[in-house]
User: Fold 3-dehydroquinate dehydratase from Paenibacillus ehimensis.
Amino acid sequence: MKVFVTIQNKQIPVFADNLNKKTLKLLKMALDKKVENGRQTLKKCLQTLISIEVIGCEAILHSFNEKDSLALSLY
Assistant:
């Protein structure tokens, strides 16, 4: 399943096998919180974000540079 979320005025594709409204809401809240209060490494990843993959209760944030990709817990 593929859905788009808006982060920092960019449309980012979110991929998941089964994505429900609760998981999507948790993802959006976590990303918004990290944009405001995240550490430098996470902010760098969010600036170059190209896609998000949700696996279970984790979101894998894929960026242009593979070294900047991170895993973010949703729960």
Remarks:
- The mean pLDDT is 87.
- Residues 34 and 42 are 7 Å apart (CA to CA).
- Helices lie at 21-37, 40-47.
- The beta strands are 2-7, 10-16, 49-55, 58-63, 70-73.
